[in-house]
Amino acid sequence: MIHAAGLRKSFGDFEAVRGIDVDVRRGEAFGFLGPNGAGKSSTMRMIAAVSPVSDGQLRILDRDPATDGPEIRARIGVCPQEDTLDTELNVRDNLIVYGRYFGLPRAEVRERADELLEFVQLTEKAKAKVDDLSGGMKRRLTIARSLINRPELLLLDEPTTGLDPQARHVVWDRLFRLKQQGVTLVLTTHYMDEAEQLTDRLVVMDKGLIVAEGSPLELIATHSTREVAELRFGVASEGDTHEALVGKVEDLADRVEVLPDRLLLYTTDGEETVAKVHERGLEPVATLVRRSTLEDVFLRLTGRTLVD
Description:
- The structure is a single chain.
- It is built from 11 helices and 13 strands.
- It is of the alpha/beta class.
- GO terms for molecular function: ATP binding.
């Protein structure tokens, strides 16, 4: 569905995408994970055939976006990061008007609009104004609109940003159903749980480069440990820091990470590690043993420093 080799995107002297290789297979859910400024959205705009490639090779649906842009855009769906719904139209008409842009006959586009409203659970809001919808409803309507042309490939840029947990799970359910129907999904996200829930395979991008690739489980197995023990110690004085305790526990774990308020011990058996910490006379005021997650991988690969 997508083949990119040495793909680059530059804006003047700034290179947003610095030579990446990507292959997306039909029917899979593929993710671009990375901090702000990693190059995810620039990559998605090239894949959507709305931003020209600066260098490298890119094929979408076995077509060249430089020469076959209209044909590609007719066969894909795009759910942008920001909702761009027409507030002058009601919910159903947002779908009908958008469908007419693809040249769909009036009768077909009306039938398709009703199908999609049912699919995203907005049938009862068909005549409502867009401004009266909740954030989650607007997001579902945007996804429905991106499906009006029955796309083979659906691009989703940060599909659940700003939504509450309940709304996010409704969107996840709709996207999972699309995948079951054979639609190929490509999404960008900075939510680790979203990437774990939705993607079969993903790449982690940082500073315009791909720094890791694989399934969520493969990435965790490669770049982290099975479990993490989080230890929080009481800090009696300014000089008594968690960093000062690293030397007393670092041999108990594969890796120790120091945070201002706790130590993270990456280990195969968290409970056993905590028991050994106690055997050494160390008494944390709070402990938590958990499975490693994609977030542990993400932070190890891209760092904890805030990117503006």
